[in-house]
């Protein structure tokens, strides 16, 4: 079976070394040794001032919304993302206002944001789709002009840089996902990153019940902590990430060659980007062609994913906004298998089957 992604698991001896130390210490949670070590290493690797390891990327989004006091306001966001981007806004009692996407990059169209801003707008929540950067400079100017906040969902953008600046340094807050499907993972996990000292203090207690020491509280908080076991997995995986990115870059080129004759398009990477090759999305000429290819691959035990589908502005629990580009792309885009242990033989086979299905 070939799935759309496959979790990297380090040699078990590497992980067990950490587990043995956890057993000796008896400390398994509450910001212990390995959690603190992972946070320190991630701050260095990602070049960010403050980073807080949390239970998952969705919790990271919820904490970011709380930290910026956005409750009750409108948040301008993209309809082309994983559902967590929208559900977190709704869960935190805010209203998502959808702005359509750029048909080339598939990220939120910065040129359409200004006209969506109202007196109730409190923030922009933009997504670096497939690790492809939003137009961070244009969005930054809009936010500054209108005195609103920016959250970047960088769940797919681990290690990605724009003009040599790590993407997690843009906006007021960036969030990351360390789910098992990501290039860097901690099985389950995520992070909230910021350069703002005051926000960092607030995030630090929001993820830990609001604690100020053992017997007093700064304010309201939740349990957003993560454990020593998850941090140990992160510490085992992190040293290999650069190798993973290099391997994925080669697989991308191999896919490009294998699919050269297919009538497919791909998202265009934003300018001046150091990319991480997280996914391999392809856009078909029609949904009918997509389904034909998907079904053909499934018959050969190959499982790509309609990522992202459906367009989030069509969800039942949000107000419907017209986003024709997102709705169209969501019906025609498919992510082909992409992970560092995928073989060249498998890529060639997938390419061959895609071509045969399109020609048949």
Give Rg in angstroms: 21 Å
Mean pLDDT: 98
- Specify the helix fraction band: 25-40%
How many extended strands?
14
Count the helices. How many? 11
| Strand proportion | 5-15%
Shape: globular
State the order of secondary-structure elements, H for helix, E for strand.
EHHEHEHEEHEEEEEHHHEEHEHEH
Structural class, judged by helices and strands?
Answer: alpha/beta
* Through-space gap between termini: 23 Å
Number of domains: 2
What do you see in this structure?
The chain is α/β, with parallel strands linked by helices and 360 residues long. The chain folds into two domains: 2-239, Type I PLP-dependent aspartate aminotransferase-like (Major domain) (Aspartate Aminotransferase, domain 2), CATH 3.40.640; 241-359, Aspartate Aminotransferase, domain 1 (Alpha-Beta Complex), CATH 3.90.1150. The protein is 37% helix and 15% strand. The chain has helices spanning 12-25, 33-46, 57-67, 84-91, 136-146, 197-206, 228-237, 241-258, 287-299, 324-332, 344-359; strands at 2-3, 50-54, 74-77, 95-98, 121-127, 149-153, 161-162, 165-166, 173-177, 190-194, 273-274, 280-283, 302-303, 333-336. Strands 2-10-9-6-5-3-4 form a seven-stranded mixed beta sheet, sandwiched between helices. The chain has a three-stranded antiparallel beta sheet with strand order 8-7-11, with no helix packed on it. Strands 1-13 form a two-stranded parallel sheet. 46% of the residues are buried. The mean pLDDT is 98.
């Amino acid at each position: 079976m070939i799935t759309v992604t496959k979790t990297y698991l380090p040699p078990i001896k590497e992980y067990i070394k950490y587990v043995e130390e956890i057993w000796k210490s008896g400390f398994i949670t509450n910001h212990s040794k390995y959690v603190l070590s992972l946070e320190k290493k991630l701050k260095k690797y990602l070049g960010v001032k403050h980073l807080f390891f949390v239970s998952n990327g969705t919790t990271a989004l919820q904490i970011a919304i709380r930290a910026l006091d956005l409750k009750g306001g409108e948040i301008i966001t993209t309809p082309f993302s994983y559902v967590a981007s929208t559900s977190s806004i709704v869960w935190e009692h805010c209203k998502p206002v959808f702005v359509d996407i750029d048909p080339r990059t598939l990220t939120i169209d910065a040129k359409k944001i200004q006209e969506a801003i109202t007196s109730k707008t409190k923030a922009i929540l933009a997504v670096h789709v497939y690790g492809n950067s939003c137009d961070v400079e244009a969005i930054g100017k809009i936010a500054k002009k209108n005195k609103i906040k920016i959250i970047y969902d960088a769940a797919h953008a681990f290690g990605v840089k724009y003009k040599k600046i790590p993407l997690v340094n843009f906006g007021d807050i960036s969030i990351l996902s360390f789910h098992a499907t990501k290039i860097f993972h901690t099985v389950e996990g995520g992070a909230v990153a910021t350069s703002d000292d005051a926000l960092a203090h607030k995030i630090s207690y929001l993820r830990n019940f609001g604690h100020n020491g053992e017997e007093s509280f700064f304010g309201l908080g939740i349990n957003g902590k993560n454990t020593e076991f998850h941090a140990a997995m992160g510490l085992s995986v992190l040293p290999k990430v650069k190798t993973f990115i290099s391997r994925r870059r080669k697989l991308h080129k191999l896919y490009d060659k294998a699919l050269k004759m297919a009538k497919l398009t791909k998202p265009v990477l934003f300018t001046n980007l150091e990319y991480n090759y997280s996914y391999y999305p392809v856009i078909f000429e029609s949904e009918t062609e997509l389904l034909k290819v998907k079904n053909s691959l499934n018959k050969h035990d190959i499982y790509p994913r309609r990522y992202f589908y459906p367009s989030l502005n069509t969800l039942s629990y949000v107000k419907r906004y017209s986003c024709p580009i997102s709705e169209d792309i969501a019906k025609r885009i498919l992510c082909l298998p992409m992970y560092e242990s995928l073989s060249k033989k498998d890529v060639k086979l997938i390419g061959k089957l895609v071509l045969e299905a399109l020609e048949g």
